[in-house]
Amino acid sequence: MGNYDEDTAFLGQKGPFFVILFFLLNAVYISTGLHSLYIVFVGASPSHHCRIADGNLSEEWLKASIPNETVNGKLQPSQCWRYSLETVRKLSALGYSPLEVNLTDISLETCVDGWSYSTDIYHSTIVSEWDLVCDSEWRVPFASSTLYMGYLLGSLVSGQLSERFGRRKVFFMSLVAEALVILAQSFSNSWLLFCVLYFFVGTVQISLYITAFVLGSEVLSKSLRVFFTTLGASLHYCIGYMVLPWIAFAVRDWRSLLRVLSGLTVVYIPLWWLIPESPRWLLSQGRVLEAEAIMREAAKKNKVSAPAVIFSKSENSKYSVLDVLRTRDIRKTTFLCFLLWMAINIGYFGLSLNTSNLSGDPFLNCFLSALTEVPAYMVSTLLLKSCPPRPVLSAFLVIGGGFLLLLQLIPESLHTLALALEMAGKFGFTMSFTVVYIYTAELYPTVLRNLGIGMCSSAARIGSITAPYIIFLGTFNKYLPYILMGSLTIASSIANMFLPETLGKVLPETLEQMQKCKRKK
């Protein structure tokens, strides 16, 4: 395979073909932003207490039947215990009022009659529908983790499928499958079925994200490639992320919310006729004539003349996952990328999933968490235009991890400052998330790029799978999740410095070019 950028230089850098494709691919990322974090609202836990199934008790006794307990320094009604209903009934029948009785002498019992949930914020969630509280509280982080378990499978499978069948086919199959599975999920009649379907949502969702990313990286011009992989894809993902809380605010029943999110995917159907296959992939498969046909169509749209022969025929080899680990240099690059992706995913998804646990309005908190990402994407884009990605990534990781480690030093009374530090940490993780995608894409050659990013994304799922449980540790010590995430992130920033630099280098096409680059380094 020759030098693709030189062979296609006649198309220019910002003609109509590239600009239209740039916006079409970016538009798809709005859907990934809408679908990635709806569990924040679907799996939210409304205020609740034990149900008192006795219509004969006075309002005074109904309120007194729930003991108070201290949680994070605040006195609130117990969510998992009540005073013995039999004893309360006897005291009420004897004419006693709660003020005349020492309630602490009454034995406690679990919520044997179920729970009563507040509908002030959420009309219905999977928590209130299937009683995922108290002894079943662990099922909520597990449900969140099933999405990232699906990410793990999708990251592995999508790379193999797109290398075999092409980026475009896998891209659209993933888009349609995601909408259908989310729709099916809205009809779940049990927590187990919800989790199984959520696993498949994750499988096709990450497949869509990675394949669209690789498709844009391979088809767009060199000047638009950086904008797409940073400000373009990431900013449009953020747009979907920012729109999500307002849709959830308007649709507060979890089943209806999922149906609305699924239905919005219909607007992407026309893209089948507008987005072409990756010419780089076609060339890697030896399908030179098809690649040239796409380039000639692009030349017409850009109003330039195409040469008689655009690409020369060449011998092509097939590659598998084993090739990503074949030599010492490639293994070193791959394993260091694994560590980076895991650490960044733990921090990013951990903080994103934690928005419903923060004080204040959950819809506004989610919006602010998404809004924090906008300047992060812009700063990342500006820096990557002139700065080497390796030290930039390390700096962002230090920022993200450092602010989280500082949280334990903030007094309890300074809630606003603590929230600001958490959002600053999210800012650092978002910038890291942006840079690591484009940095990884530049490290791997075309013949292994989709496989390489897919494997890194698979390794990252170990991080995102554990993220809900790391946040769950906050029920034992509120600072423990921040200490763990911050420490791991600082460690990964050091490991990042052992990777090669890519600034000013041509995007590698073959395995040999990737190895040669490392030997020079």
UniProtKB/TrEMBL annotation:
Gene3D superfamilies associated with the record: MFS general substrate transporter like domains
GO cellular component: membrane
Compartment(s) of residence: Membrane
Record-annotated membrane-spanning stretches: 17-41, 170-185, 191-215, 227-251, 257-275, 333-350, 362-384, 391-410, 416-439, 451-473, 479-499
Annotated Major facilitator superfamily (MFS) profile domain residues: 88-504
Gene Ontology molecular functions: transmembrane transporter activity
InterPro entries assigned: MFS_dom, MFS_sugar_transport-like, MFS_trans_sf, Sugar_transporter_CS
Keyword vocabulary terms for this entry: Membrane, Transmembrane, Transmembrane helix
Main location: membrane
Pfam families assigned: Sugar_tr
Topological relation to the membrane, as annotated: Multi-pass membrane protein
Record's keyword annotation contains Transmembrane: yes
PROSITE patterns assigned to the protein according to its UniProt record, in alphabetical order: MFS, SUGAR_TRANSPORT_1
Domain of life per record: Eukaryota
Protein name as annotated: Solute carrier family 22 member 5-like
Organism for this UniProt entry: Sinocyclocheilus rhinocerous
Gene name of this polypeptide: LOC107757865
